[in-house]
Write a structure and sequence with these properties.
Blueprint: E1 10-14, H1 19-31, E2 34-41, H2 48-63, H3 65-70, E3 71-78, H4 81-85, H5 111-126, E4 130-132, H6 148-162, E5 167-169, H7 177-199, E6 211-212, E7 215-216, H8 222-242
Parallel strand pairs: 1-2, 1-4, 2-3, 4-5
Antiparallel strand pairs: 6-7
Helix pairs in contact: 1-7, 2-7, 5-6, 7-8
The chain binds zinc ion (ZN).
Residues 203-205, 207, 217-218, 220-221, 223-224 line the site of zinc ion.
């Protein structure tokens, strides 16, 4: 393919090692000429995510010849400052519950705002012009910094703030979890779906002992339940679509 327009652009994917960001990485590798990845270590309870990243990047090189030439450097930033801010079930050993304001206590206030701000700073240094994140307003658990308008406002603020035209791309914004499995199928076929199923990590409680149909996890926490439900819905939709007549 001749590199023109969109395909010449250079992207930075917020890559945690979870299902969503892994699907976003496949999406970015399909659309952009050069793709780097960025992870954040913020003392998250689900640190298994971070150890999945290297495995996933290695496996991506084998999935598609274009992807191996487009996949660039990986970056990991220390964000333990988020733990200093404290009081989230995402970082502390407290039970996952709903707060008085209706948000789940896994919410880390400002997390995505910080992540994109640091990603913009890195993109400036690395000559990258697209930031890709796996936020979704459909399954967003009520996190206000996953909303489309939050991220559109941030795109404007960051582009002005670094005086470069940055684009924030969120390919999962209007997809549910079943759609995200389907997107993986469309981008990379059965091999990518299998990679997502067995090598990405979602469980808040960091469990990787049991391989379920939908992947590894405790099967009980909100992240596992959402992933399991999405996988089942995707299989159901696929079998309905395959039914003749
Ligand atoms: Zn879990």
């Amino acid at each position: 393919m001749t590199a023109t327009g969109q395909s010449r652009r250079r992207a930075l994917v917020l890559f945690s090692g979870g299902q969503d960001s892994t699907t976003c990485l496949a999406w970015a590798l399909t659309h952009f000429a050069h793709v780097e990845t960025l992870g954040f270590d913020y003392g998250q309870r689900h640190s298994a995510e971070l150890s999945c990243r290297a495995t996933l990047r290695d496996r991506f090189q084998t999935l598609h010849p274009d992807w191996s030439t487009r996949l660039g450097e990986d970056h990991l930033l220390d964000m333990t400052v988020l733990k200093q801010l404290g009081a989230s079930a995402m970082t502390d050993d407290v039970a996952i519950a709903t707060q008085a304001d209706g948000l789940p206590n896994t919410f880390v206030p400002g997390r995505n705002l910080l992540f994109f701000t640091l990603a913009a700073a890195l993109a400036y240094r690395r000559g990258l012009d697209v930031l890709v994140g796996g936020m979704s307003q459909t399954d967003y658990s009520g996190y206000p910094d996953c909303r489309d308008n939050t991220l559109k406002a941030l795109q404007v603020a960051l582009s002005l703030g670094i005086d470069r035209p940055l684009t924030l791309e969120t390919p999962l914004m209007w997809l549910d979890k079943a759609d995200t499995w389907e997107l993986a199928q469309q981008l990379g076929g059965a091999a990518l779906v299998e990679l997502v199923r067995t090598d990405t990590h979602t469980c808040y409680l960091n469990q990787r002992d049991t391989l379920h149909a939908w992947g590894y996890g405790c099967g009980q926490c909100p992240a596992c339940l959402l992933r399991a439900q999405g996988y089942q819905q995707w299989l159901t939709r696929r079998s309905v679509n395959r039914t003749p007549g």
